[in-house]
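S.,

As promised, the adenosine-5'-triphosphate run. Input:
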Amino acid sequence: MTEQAIRVRRLTKRYGGRHAVAGIDLDVDDGEIVAVLGPNGAGKTTTVEILEGYRRRDSGDVRVLGEDPGRAGRRWRAGIGVVLQSTHDMAEMTVREQVRQFARYYPDPRDPDEVIAAVGLAADAGTRSRHLSGGRRRRLDVALGIVGRPRLLFLDEPTTGFDPEARRAFWALIGELRAAGTTILLTTHYLEEAEALADRAVVVARGRVVATGAPARLGDRAARRATVRWTEGGRRHEVLTDTPTREVSRLADRLGAEIPGLEVVRPTLEDVYLALVGPPASIDSGADAREAAS
Ligand SMILES: Nc1ncnc2c1ncn2[C@@H]1O[C@H](COP(=O)(O)OP(=O)(O)OP(=O)(O)O)[C@@H](O)[C@H]1O
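Predicted complex:
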C-alpha cells in the first residue's frame, strides 16, 4: 500500500503576533522515515503537535493518515504513536505496568512484554520508571509510543540528552521499526541522527522549510563544492570549486608533483546546515565543526 502518510500545505500558526509556523509544506510517504531538522524555536514541535492533533492550526491543509488531525476521532488516533519531548509522569508505576496500561488504549496492541524486550528494557520490566536513567526512560517512552502498533510514529527529539552509546542503541531500535514498515516523522537537532536514520530530511528555520532532500545531499550544489588551498610564493591561496580533482591536477602541472601545503576541504553536513538555517545560536557542535573545517 503506497499512500501518503502525511500531506501538509501552507501550514501556519501564530502565537500572539508572531508566526511560529509560516507556511510549511511537508510530504511523508507510507514507510518513509523523515527527519525535521532545525534550531531551537524553528517551529518543529508546533508543526508536529498540529499533525498529532494536539494543537490547532491557523490555516493550511493537513492530512495525516488520510484525515484532518483537528477533527479525527479515536480510530485515527489508534493508528498513530507519539513520543513527546517531555513525558507524562507515571513515575511510581513499573515499566511493565505502564506498557500494559497503554496497550489497553488500543484495539490491536502488540504484546507488552515483546515491546519491552524490543526496546531493550526486559531487565527493567519490574523497575519503577522514576528509577530509570534518562536513556532508559526514553526507551520506555518509545515502548509506549509503539505498543499500539502504529502505522505512523512521531518522535520529538527522541535522543536529546543521550550519550553516544545510548543514541546508537536507539538508532538500532528505529532500524527495527523501519524494517517492520513503520512510517516515522522525527524531529532532531542532530544532523548525524538525520543522516543515520532518515530517508529524507526537511530543514526548518523561522517557521519555513529552507531545504529538503536526502540528508547527505542537503544543500546539494553547496555540498559538492570543495575548497582547495595551497601555498605559493610564500602565501596561502584558496579556490572554491565544483571540480577539485581538476584543480589539484592543474596545480600539480604548475607547481610540481608535491603541491606545498595542499588541502582539499569539503563542507560537512553541519556547514551546509548552518548555511541554510543562519547563525548557530543553539548548535554548539556545528560551531565546532565549522572551526575544524576552516
Ligand atoms: N504555547 C506557546 N505560546 C507562545 N509561543 C509559543 C508556544 N509554543 C511555541 N511558541 C513559540 O513558537 C516558536 C516555535 O516553537 P517550537 O517549539 O515549535 O520550535 P521548535 O523548533 O520545536 O524548537 P525546539 O527545538 O526548541 O523544541 C518559538 O518562538 C516558541 O517560543
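Residues 21 and 207 are 4 Å apart (CA to CA). The mean pLDDT is 85.

- D.
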